[in-house]
Amino acid sequence: MPRAGDPDGRRVLVVTAVEAERDAVAAGWPAVTAVAAGVGPAAAAAVTAAELTAALARGRPYGLVVSAGIGGGFAPDVPVGATAVATALIAADLGAVTADGFADVTALGFGAVSHEPPPELVREVAALTGAHTGPILTVSTVTGTAARAAELTARHPGAVAEAMEGFGVAEAATRAGVPVLEVRTVSNAVGPRDRAAWRIPDALRALTAAFRAAGPALTAQPPARPAGTDGGVHDTDATGPPVTGARTADATPPEEAP
Ligand SMILES: O=C(O)c1cccc(C(=O)CC[C@H]2O[C@@H](n3cnc4c(=O)[nH]cnc43)[C@H](O)[C@@H]2O)c1
Which range is the signal sequence, renumbered to this chain (predicted)? Predict the structure, then answer.
């Protein structure tokens, strides 16, 4: 089994919101480095960027970043307990409300609202986990009404889930030239707020199962690409102490890091 840092394996950073999610990921596939970054896209982006920069400075860059955790599923197609893998990580509420409705920041002329993972990796991970595939929406406010759920599905047909971190992780990964993936297991339906109905333990068990099933594909070294299309995996002679502001579950103990 490839371990984090193995020359034969791809180094994978998994970013979750809370420690329970981080531990569920690490229980499924300990060969990844899993960090709990906090809730929301800003915390997710800040911690992802810091981890990627620190790893690069240590000369042990990551080859893949995964945003993972529990999420809301778009019922009835994606029920509680299901797994979802993103074909696109979308900032669903980054924009402006206008007289003509919501305008995202791309429509306003300010950059991207979507990041796409490598399609072949999406297909492989979905096949291994039995996941639903489609856009996963990143929101700063959890959907709490049927009307809001309908608005989101009208704007994003085929959306499979919503959560609060994916786009933030993707912004940091993309700026570092590292491919990104999002894997969610469903704890609740997107719709009228009913916190008592969230099935968090079930979703966390599903998260462990998903990483147990998909782990080998995540940490396997992908086929070599032609020069100049290395996905941002840069080699460096720089060395230094491991740096992380986040709570980490890593197969490689810090004292073993170069
Ligand atoms: O209380 C616990 O034991 C516990 C364990 C694990 C996770 C939690 C969370 O509350 C995680 C918050 C996290 O969950 C995502 N999430 C889940 N459902 C939705 C949703 O319907 N809409 C948006 N986000 C959702 C989100 O990514 C949060 O960061 C608690």
Answer: none
CATH of the domain spanning 12-219:
3.40.50.1580
How big is the chain, counted in residues? 258
Give the model confidence (pLDDT) of 186-237 as tens digits.
999 999 999 999 999 999 999 999 999 999 999 998 877 665 544 333 222 2
The rounded Å distance from CA 13 to ligand 1 centre is 20
Give dist(CA 53, CA 35) in Å, integer.
14
Q: Beta strands 132-138 and 161-163: pairing type?
A: parallel
Amino acid present at 181? L
Domain layout of the chain by residue ranges: 12-219
Q: What is the CA(258)–ligand 1 centre distance, in A? A: 35
DSSP state of 205: H
Instruction: Give residues (CB < 6 A) around ligand 1.
Output: 17-18, 20-21, 39, 69-72, 139, 142-143, 162-165, 187-188, 190, 200
What gap in Å lies between CA 108 and CA 252, rounded to an integer? 44
Predicted TM-score (pTM) of this structure? 0.88
ipTM of the complex: 0.94
